[in-house]
Amino acid sequence: MGENLVIVESPAKAKTIEKFLGKGFIVKSSFGHIRDLAKKDFGVDIKNQYKPIYIVPEDKKKIVSELKKFKKNAKLVWLASDEDREGEAIAWHLSEVLGLTEENTRRIVFHEITKNAIQSAVENPRKINYNVVQAQQARRVLDRLVGFQLSPLLWKKIKPSLSAGRVQSVAVRLLVEKEREILNFKTSSSYKVSAIFSFLDPDGKQVEIQAELSRKLKDLDEARDFLTQCGLASYEIARLATKSLKRSPAPPFTTSTLQQEAGRKLGFSVAQTMSVAQKLYEAGKITYMRTDSVNLSSLALNTAKKVIDEEFGNKYHQFRKYQTKTKGAQEAHEAIRPTYLENKDIDGPAAGVKLYNLIWKRTMASQMSNAEIEKTTATISISNMPDVFTATGEVIKFDGFLKLYSVTTDEDSVSGSKTILPPLREGEKLHYEMITASEKFTQPPYRYSEASLVKKMEELGIGRPSTYAPTISTIQNRGYVVKEHLDGNERDIVVLEMTDGKVKESKKAEKYGRERSKLVPTDIGMVVNDFLTEHFKSIMDYNFTALVEKEFDEIASGNLEWVKMIDRFYSDFNTRVEKTLKESEKTTGERVLGIDPASGEEVLVKVGRYGPLAQLGKVREDYKPRFASLRKDQRIETISLEEALDLFKLPREIGNFENNSMIVAISKYGPYIRHDGKFYSLEKQDDPLSINSERAIEIIRIKREQDSKKVIKTFSENENLKILNGRWGPYISYEKKNYKIPKNDNPEELSLENCLTIIANSKKKKSAKKK
DNA sequence: CAGTGAGCGAGCTTCCGCTTGACTT
Known about the structure:
This protein is α+β, with helices and mostly antiparallel strands. Helix content is about 35%, strand content about 25%. It has a six-stranded antiparallel barrel. Strands 2-1-7-8 form a four-stranded parallel β-sheet, with helices on both faces. Strands 19-20-21-22 form a four-stranded antiparallel β-sheet. α5 runs antiparallel to α17 (about 545-555), α5 packs parallel to α18 (about 560-585) and α9 crosses α11 (about 350-365). The longest helix is centred in the N-terminal third of the chain and has 28 residues, at about 130-155. It binds one DNA strand through β3, α3, α5, β24 and β25.
């Protein structure tokens, strides 16, 4: 048996390392933490020096007992968890649970999985650093105190099952504040002037260039006057300037930048990116995907050089070492890169191939030379005004890393492509072809996407690579935030066009405010946020994590006792909790909109047990208020009195059809018609307040027709089995379960036996998968 | 899939960071 037991955090890592270490070493994985605070009774004994109560969670018991078995047969145990605060704590928990002693234990660390790194780690063992372990303990206890005191407070003051925490609550705050910034944004407009000029080149050919006025004009009158003057002016190139620019590649991927780029370039959600990356990692295609480091191993650097030299020539290679600027980065791993940089492509599912490709390009580009760009600016004078037009063009002199990779930003789609200018000379006389002044509205800020929220959190040092994706899920699961496509609106803009000295005015429709897959806070998210920021200002402060991190660092370096730090925090925090518990009322985010002119009752909106609602009048002895849920697209903060009053107009009877009444109402699944005990959803363009009986009957008829097509075939021998037409084509429905019909079968010709075979086969496949 | 919004009370919810599978269409 092996004399040496090595324990790492990740099973995929264990496999690779075992190969490097060879005989005499057994490498096992702890699958992350093996102990955690107990969930019942708080898990922290506050009165007894905040003593943590650790237990082995149910799903870790098997792993622990296995490790114990291996430990029995080993002479030495090597604790090789990551070199960061959590890793040090894992090492300590292992030594506690496995009953290790200093004599039979070695603590080793490595930041990259290469033979050299691992061998030198084995040659340089150390002891567990108990200061770092205490820093982790402080982190863990603080998070428990905050989370398990604030959440119950929300259950009492707002509604059950809500949650609050050092990370998630601040993430929601970011979204709420962005939303309010957008809500309060006052848009204004100005006029942007652009021109098309022409001249004859030496060959006598007419050449056009596009130019823009360097300032914006404040209103329509000014724009009109300006264009009129332009009609009388002559133009010439007053100055021609060229400037060399250099552009450098972005560093290799970390978790956060991978999530951002996969979102922008591949349209992946944060969770999707992580699950695809996990599979690539397990298959040995990429290095570890939860990292905050931009560092590459020297092995990777050498391979990158070799591949770039071969593929593009050595002038495309530039050795680069990147430094992380991220707050609180712990850099226990490498950057995310392909394990073998010589593999440009891989096989497998499409999503994995695409993500791998992105990682390969980004890694390679990070070791490539700068792009050299020449930017030309032509200044065009106007004879009768001091203003100037400028035309700019860019020429890539040397593409460098751009050959492989360019970083996009969320705003890129708006700015358009860079133009190339024709050969120009100073003093050239130009003719205008057309000069245009178009109205431009100022834009409110963009909302956060999943990935841009992660970026912001990383900047603030909130959360860790392993928690970004779960945190984004949590705030959505709690109902604080929804991911939405926002359609935007349309508005008219004024456009002035001047040709041959004549100014023509017209209106053009413009779409604005359209955003895809953005995070929008809900009413409950806002109410919880306002409650927390009012009563727990310091925890909701964007710098809170950074501040406590400083103290954790002090603990780690041995300059502060963890209990002292926690006690200082808790004494103040606890009084706030107690005070809020006693003094503050139940919070509903109530907003009074005004008086209903018909009944004279007050109209208000608030968050209720089942979500946001509008209420007509307050409870009195002789009066019971009416209630109506807000529609999906309505918010407590923005709904108007008229819109709220409209909600009370439903349910509404709109006529009879086949001797049964038709009633229009809105449910949590949207507007519908109820007729003869059946429900018919309205289409998007139908307004439940104005829909008439003809349209309603049409909807009912369409639905009936669809339903009649739904059944393809039934069998009198077995009524439980049906061949149906669904959203994705024909399928078999049997005993409440659905089965796919093989591609080559014609669903109309299937016999009962055929169907039963298909069912049996698909069940077989499933059980095979399980094995 | 589709009406909720009185009040009581039992029992439950909840944090952040490390790791993977366990599920479903």
